[in-house]
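Course assignment 3, question 2. Fill in each field.
Student: A.L.
Task: Predict the tertiary structure for the chain below.
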Amino acid sequence: MAAILGVAGLLIGGLLLSLDRDETAPSLVQYNAQYIDAGAMLRLTETLSSDALEGRATGTRGNQAARDFVQKRFETLGLRQFGEAYVQPFAVVSDDEGAAPVVGANLISWIAGQTPGEGPAIVITAHYDHLGIVDGEIYNGADDNASGTAALIAVAQYFSLHAPRHDIIFAAVDAEEIGHLGSRALVLSPPVPLERIALNINYDMVSRSSAGELYVAGTFHTPGLKPLVEAVAADAPVRILIGHDDPALGQADDWTLASDHAAFHEAGIPFLYFGVEDHPGYHQPTDDYSEITPDFFARAGDALVMAALAADQNLESIARMRRTD
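Answer field:
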């Protein structure tokens, strides 16, 4: 079990410095990744889910430290800003009477396509917050969702080296665990006109699967996306399964509103949500880095790039799939 660390501030500073060092990649990955830097993705997941960040709850110093890590990665990759900064604050209204106000913060960046600022765009999201400290135990959230945040940066790294056809916005969002507040703030105040956003791709829990299965939801609501997903699945180095998006399944198995893609879906924007099924560590203090399945994670990372590439290549047709009801 994770224990509260009284020297968390010092450890956070040390972890920030460690990002500048060329560390040895983890040796648990047998798969030779073709699109991503698997070692860097794993190291960032480990860092974001360390005890020093105290579970990354919105409004805490650990959350701030996680934000600093992500911003440093954005800067290192040379991702563009909207306006003067990557950080876009938003208000968090607490349900607890008398609770002090909290400010959440999204980090938003973009990579230009062939006609920057024009035509349809993709928004790729992953939330970096988690549950924090509960009853004296740190909920590190390695899979949920240090993994998705690290995968977002791995995909951004790929596109920073291989320019896409269309603008791609990369948003590490806050406050997912308390109501998808960061993604809702993003949709309410988007960095580009909302009508330009043709697709949301959301990563939430992509590193832990003993069965080696990565699910993608969203094709039930936008059937035109199914051939694209099937084509990616046919070539992907990991088993991709379509599902968990039919309301007839009931709330437990329908992921339509389960994560940050919900805000885009409610705005009529097609989404593809990549994630694993719940496991024993879900929302438990045992969701630690030591429990992820690194080889699966590396394979999933490549599959996420493949899906983003396919979406980018077909974005004009995807833009016509937007709901108008």
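Instructor remarks: The radius of gyration is 18 Å. The chain has one domain: 8-14+32-319.
Grade: pending
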